[in-house]
Amino acid sequence: MNRTVFFVSESTGITAETLGHSLLSQFDTVNFEQVYMPYINTELRAQALTQRMAEAADRDGARPIVFATMLNHEIRDILKGGNCFYVELFEVFVGPLSAELGVPPSLKSGQSHAITKPSYYTKRIEAINFAMANDDGIRPDNFHRADVVLTGVSRSGKTPTCLYLAMHYGLRSANYPITEEDFERGDLPQLLYDCRHKLFALTIEPQRLQLIREERRPGSGYASLKRCQDDIKQAQKMYKRLQVPVLNTTTQSIEEISSQIIKMLKDNLDGGAASGGKTAVI
């Protein structure tokens, strides 16, 4: 089954896309062609979009699905009048929430991604800059300034996880790749032992690691299955010696790995507050 899905908004469309993707993930037997349509903020643009919906319906033999965050009722009515299955996400939640709070909504578009809290926005930008400047162990002397430090073998997912933690949570994130020297020595540097309270290790199944490395260096010894198996085996021994949490990135997304890290950091923070100890502040 093929269905076209439009993510529509009079602003960025990030909310419509995020919530829409979450709902579509429950229907993995359907092939969705996804169309991202931000800034549909005039009646003329809305009318042009209904034409695209009609074309999609003719092509698929079924009306397209529209996930929208549309506060303008005139534009919303135009879209609803098109040949589509229309889901207005704000309509589902804002009305009942307003009734519960006893406060009318502001009905301003783009609020969820606007710079409503400049201090937090600045913190996120600084965290992103920190993650980029402290990638791949470039500045191990900065690990004491990091909120979280990741370690793992090459291509286990350290860099994208650090950037996600910085972008979405404003955490200063650094990472340390296990090197040939570490494997030869059979242990990790003392600086990682010094930051164990905020250190997380990433692991991955050798077969999956081989596929990732093969894309980077096809046919190399670096990408061989034996090399991947040896690297992971040695790394696991180091993690056991460090006694730090180990997260498997084989089948988990960056979002899932990050959420686990956030939870463990918060647990550490709560435990530190109760015992008077120091932990990373989120």
UniProtKB/TrEMBL annotation:
Catalytic activity: [pyruvate, water dikinase] + ADP = [pyruvate, water dikinase]-phosphate + AMP + H(+); [pyruvate, water dikinase]-phosphate + phosphate + H(+) = [pyruvate, water dikinase] + diphosphate
EC number(s) per entry: 2.7.11.33, 2.7.4.28
Protein source organism: Thiorhodococcus drewsii AZ1
Coiled-coil intervals: none
Functional summary from the UniProt entry: Bifunctional serine/threonine kinase and phosphorylase involved in the regulation of the phosphoenolpyruvate synthase (PEPS) by catalyzing its phosphorylation/dephosphorylation.
Protein's name according to its UniProt entry: Putative phosphoenolpyruvate synthase regulatory protein
InterPro entries listed in its UniProt record: Kinase-pyrophosphorylase, PSRP
Record family assignment: Belongs to the pyruvate, phosphate/water dikinase regulatory protein family. PSRP subfamily.
NCBIfam families: PRK05339.1 (NF003742)
Alphabetic keyword roster: Kinase, Nucleotide-binding, Serine/threonine-protein kinase, Transferase
GO molecular function per UniProt: ADP binding; ATP binding; phosphotransferase activity, phosphate group as acceptor; protein serine/threonine kinase activity
Residues reported in the UniProt entry to bind ADP: G152, V153, S154, R155, S156, G157, K158, T159
